[in-house]
Specification:
Helix content is 49%, strand content 12%. The protein contains 28 helices and 17 strands. The strands form 4 sheets. It has a 7-stranded parallel sheet with strand order 11-12-10-13-14-9-17. The longest helix is centred in the last third of the chain and has 23 residues. The chain is globular, with a radius of gyration of 27 Å. The termini are far apart. The structure holds a DNA duplex (15 and 10 nucleotides).
DNA sequence: TAGGCCAAGATTTTC
DNA sequence: TCTTGGCCTA
């Protein structure tokens, strides 16, 4: 490492950067310069002669992966074609793309998201005449996921569900489809069952780095261990206080496990915070200290003071939105605050709406991360389903989605008949349809045969064009016009042609994304499979992540992890929202994770933190009374200022602010 | 048998 | 508010 680089780091950071060989555990508190340490460390490895190809850095989100890649590139000024920086899931796809045939799948596999899983579950249940009535399919899929990720033995699954699970799994295989759990589970299976594959990866990746280690699942840990255990050159970076993904299997017990599995591991704690003011940090420490289940550390900062945290109680969510919008405008005008330095954080996606309405009304440009993804929109999913079907004709879920979209006169009865045929042959629907059309004794009436024929012809006509590794965008455009998706949208949205236009516009944007993808020199010759994989793994990303400047950032707290903003607004800091009622209902112990979430939210702020809690809120159709979040009581009072919606209240007057506010709520405001 | 129309239900967080 | 599912009609 050069002296210039060294001078930018503190003692612990330097140690973390320069410890290249052997297992290393870095506990990096919020704002402690973690990203800097990771990027410098990679740069240091490269400059010491370790080839790019030998390094594997695993992150949790695509955004983190991109950022890391970007920062290392800036730092080294090198092209990084050989460096592997990706999410666990993306890396899993990469492994599967090379080796999945050994597990009996084909390389053109589809990746199913939750919506697809639901569809598949229903389809499977229908076929084996299993009634899903009065079954919460979301919960059932969660159970399936636990079985698949070995968090729960199959035997613990209710007998009644075991067959359904097996059928569900065999359907996935029949459709040549995998789900997100498979993206980790199948690579593990590959590495465990085929020593030559294991050796291949171990020989290549002699240095493994895992970011956001507290959010790795048991499976991901297992995967990581398989890859890194022989070299022992594994560096994990995490912060148990920021573990907020346990609902997805994250287990920060992996930190303890790591110390056991990698004996002699070095541990470095980064506790100096370079991000936030003393006030914000003290608030965060005050909150997180209420958690019992933590490793324990104390963040400190060299800078003293900082502006107080301002607390507001708007009447309702509408007023909350307008207040935040106004406040941002005022700060922009009076203090020169830049919009892109503002983060507006919420616990749930459902809070986006009223905030977005306010920003629109006040002409404040914003961008959102999280929330309903562009790729989840119905019209986009339709088009993606066509692409998937082209890539993998056995993908029944996609076939079912588009078979009658736009309407082709293929109805329930026909569908029943072809399903029966497919099931009896143990084949996919696509194969089933072909068989039905070619068999002399086809049970289908002539009209249905004609309709199905037309459908298959359409697929066959376009399939080679989609598989050709060129002009994907043009082909898609021609295809959308050919099926007259526009007419379909008009028919589906008879009440408002605005909606139809908006949806068609989305399709055009999507085609634009395909074109951008093709134009990107990094992706040349990659084709439809790679494109599909990419959008499956990037499902939460907005289509244009580039133009972030000049826009405020509206996001969920989960999406905000790893980010920082000069000014942060925490909206909807209310009981039942944070801690979220559902999380607590599920398991009262979840309170600690909810608290960590609140902690993560607070520590995103550099200079100034605003907190709002509404007295009333629109929830679905009704208006409900709200109370402030109990977590607010865990912030030392001296750090907070209760503000009237218009003017500030003197601090000493506000000593009992919390009690007063509670009383006010109790009396109905 | 297919498609339109109407009513009910749903919202925690993401790869 | 938006989507999904069921029922009824042509």
């Amino acid at each position: 490492m050069t002296t210039a680089h060294r001078s930018e780091l503190n003692k612990e950071q330097i140690e973390a950067v320069e410890t290249i060989e052997g297992p290393l555990l870095i506990i990096a508190g919020a704002g402690s310069g973690k990203t800097r340490v990771i990027t410098y460390r990679i740069a240091c490895m490269l400059s010491s002669g370790i080839p790019q190809k030998a390094i594997l850095a695993l992150t949790f989100t695509n955004k983190a992966a991109r950022e890391m890649q970007e920062r290392v590139r800036e730092l080294t000024g090198k092209k990084l074609a050989g460096l592997s920086i990706s999410t666990f899931h993306a890396f899993g796809v990469r492994v599967l793309r090379s080796h999945i045939h050994r597990l009996g799948y084909r390389e053109n596999f589809s990746i199913y998201d939750v919506a697809d899983q639901h569809d598949l579950l229903k389809e499977t249940a229908r076929e084996i005449a299993f009634s899903l009535e009065s079954v919460d399919t979301t919960k059932l899929l969660a159970l399936f996921s636990r079985v698949k990720t070995r968090m729960m033995p199959m035997a613990e699954l209710a007998i009644a569900y075991q067959e359904l699970y097996r059928e569900y799994q065999s359907h996935m295989k029949l459709y040549n489809a995998v789900d997100f759990d498979d993206l980790i589970a199948l690579p593990i299976k590959l590495l465990e069952s085929f020593p030559d594959v294991l050796v291949e990866y171990r020989n290549q990746f002699r240095y493994v780095l895992v970011d956001e280690f507290q959010d790795t699942s048991r499976q991901q840990y297992r995967f990581m261990k398989l890859l890194g255990h022989s070299s022992g050159n594994v560096c994990v970076v995490g912060d148990d206080d920021q573990s907020i993904y346990s609902w997805r299997g994250a287990d920060f017990g992996n930190i303890l496990e790591f110390e056991k599995d990698f004996p002699g591991c070095r541990e470095i704690k980064l506790e100096r915070n370079y991000r936030s003011t003393d006030t914000i940090l003290a608030a965060a420490n005050g909150v997180i200290s209420h958690n019992k289940n933590r490793k324990g550390k104390n963040l400190w900062t060299g800078t003293k003071g900082g502006k107080p945290i301002e607390l507001y109680y708007p009447e309702d969510d509408r007023q909350e939105g307008l207040f935040i919008a106004e406040k941002i405008k005022t700060l922009a005008m009076r203090e020169g605050l830049k919009y892109h330095d503002v983060g507006v954080l919420v616990r749930t996606n459902s809070l986006f709406r009223s905030l977005e309405e306010a920003f629109l009304a006040e002409n404040i440009p914003y961008r959102t991360t999280g929330g309903q993804s562009f790729f989840q929109r119905k019209e986009i999913k339709d088009i993606i389903a066509y692409l998937r079907l082209m890539a993998n004709p056995d993908d029944d879920i996609s076939l079912l989605r588009v078979l009658n979209t736009p309407r082709r006169g293929i109805g329930k009865r026909t569908l029943e008949q072809i399903t029966e045929l497919a099931v009896s042959r143990g084949a996919s629907l696509h194969t089933g349809i072909q068989a039905a059309l070619h068999a002399a004794d086809s049970p289908l009436p002539p009209k249905a045969q004609g309709d199905l024929h037309a459908f298959l012809d359409l697929i066959e006509e376009y399939r080679p064009r989609f598989l050709a590794k060129k002009k994907l965008g043009d082909t898609l455009k021609a295809f959308v016009e050919d099926i007259d998706y526009w007419a379909h949208l008009v028919a589906e949205n008879q009440k408002s042609d605005k909606a139809a236009k908006w949806k068609y516009r989305n399709i055009e944007i999507f085609i634009g994304i395909v074109r951008d993808y093709e134009r990107d020199p990094d992706n040349q010759n990659s084709g439809v499979f790679d494109f599909l994989n990419r959008i499956s793994l990037n499902s939460r990303d907005e289509p244009d992540p580039k133009d972030s400047s000049g826009k405020i950032n509206l996001m969920t707290i989960h999406a905000a992890k790893g980010l920082e903003h000069e000014v942060v607004f925490l909206a909807g800091v209310e009981e039942h929202l944070i801690p979220h009622a559902r999380a607590i209902e599920e398991n009262p112990d979840n309170i600690e994770e909810e608290r960590r979430l609140f902690y993560v939210a607070i520590t995103r702020a550099r200079q100034k933190l605003f907190i709002t809690a509404c007295r009333k809120r629109r929830v679905m159709r009704e208006i409900v009374e709200s109370l402030p979040s109990p977590f607010l009581e865990e912030i030392p009072e001296s750090l907070m200022q209760l503000m009237e919606m218009d003017e500030p209240v003197e601090t000493d007057e506000a000593v009992d602010y919390f009690a007063r506010i509670k009383a006010q709520f109790a009396s109905g405001g």
